[in-house]
Specification:
The chain is of the alpha+beta class. The protein has 2 domains: 42 residues; 175 residues, no CATH class. The protein is built from 7 helices and 11 strands. The longest helix has 29 residues.
């Protein structure tokens, strides 16, 4: 009896070819959509999960209530908040301030418009952004130092994997408001995964922001920065 079911089903499929094709096509589309939705959701939920300390890293937001009763969140903070929080809350191990802006990179007298990040030297101690060349503990200690990504080392300097050490000590210029600032490459950063909320190719010390030498983003953000803290 059971052996007849496949035969009957086959005959019906052949007899009603149009409906069979519509059903199979619709089923295939539905399965494909489910797979794509699953992959998208999985990718979104994986953001920043690759950091070894991801369960202890938080971005500081300020909760605000407007006079009309509406609730808002301020994501950019004053630079002084980092020291104030680490001193007031013993549960904070370290803090990292980050700001970004668009600048002109000068290489071999050619200008390139790029996004530049300024960050505290604790950046590579807090976040898992491995360096393939240079010391992550000291790469941003000097205000005149710069860390670049593997893609940038290949794009501007023609250095491929295996030769990154040759890049250390080379220089790139940043042009801002008709003034050029010279920076020495102190580290090569492994290309950051797509599922990272921080996509950095150029990083210099946050001291340049504090001392006003190269305060990027100040016109748009009122001299404020993103603040990340690591808990004990």
């Amino acid at each position: 009896m059971l052996a007849n079911y496949p035969k009957i089903a086959g005959r019906n499929l052949v007899k009603h070819r149009v409906y069979t094709l519509i059903n199979i096509f619709g089923l295939a589309i539905g399965i494909a959509c489910c797979i794509l939705i699953y992959l998208f959701v999985k990718h979104e939920w994986s953001y920043d999960g690759f950091h070894e300390k991801s369960d202890r890293i938080y971005r500081v937001l300020i909760h605000e209530r407007a006079p009309d009763g509406s609730i808002g969140f301020r994501v950019l903070q004053l630079p002084s908040l980092a020291d104030a929080m680490t001193q007031a809350f013993p549960g904070i191990r370290q803090a990292t301030r980050i700001v970004r802006g668009r600048v002109t990179i000068i290489h071999e007298n050619e200008p390139f418009y790029e996004t530049l990040f300024e960050a505290d030297s604790s950046l590579f101690r807090m976040f898992t952004f491995p360096l393939v060349a240079g010391d992550p503990m000291t790469a941003l200690h000097d205000p005149g130092s710069m860390v670049i990504s593997e893609d940038i080392a290949q794009k501007y300097l023609g250095i491929t994997q295996g030769g990154y050490q040759k890049t250390l000590g080379q220089r790139l210029s940043i042009k801002r408001n008709n003034t050029e600032y010279l920076f020495t490459i102190s580290g090569i950063m492994q290309n950051i995964p797509d599922n990272s909320s921080l996509q950095m190719d150029f990083v210099i010390s946050f001291e340049n922001f504090e001392n006003g030498k190269l305060r990027i983003g100040s016109n748009d953000w009122g001299s404020k920065n993103s603040l990340y803290i690591e808990l004990m």
